Sequence to fold (92 residues):
Amino acid sequence: MYRHSRLIAALTDAHMSGLIFNERYRNAVLNMGQQLLNDYDERVLNGEPAGVLEEANRKITDMVREASEKALSLVLKNASEHMKIRYHRGDN
Fold:
């Protein structure tokens, strides 16, 4: 997950249009994560066993993984479309 977020940040830094992907990714992860936290907090407050928090953790990590892979694929596609290939004599 950490490497996904660092790759997304590095690739969007080179292309300003990639910032849209980065903002959408962050907002989607924050919103979905907050919704999952609220749902599971309510379940625990209503008397479900604390073991349900392991399920919440698993769902949150799966959601973040899925969102980051989707964002990374979009950013990689965008970066590869705007890539400039330059060859110099000094390149060996």
The chain has one domain: 2-79. The chain has a mean pLDDT of 81.
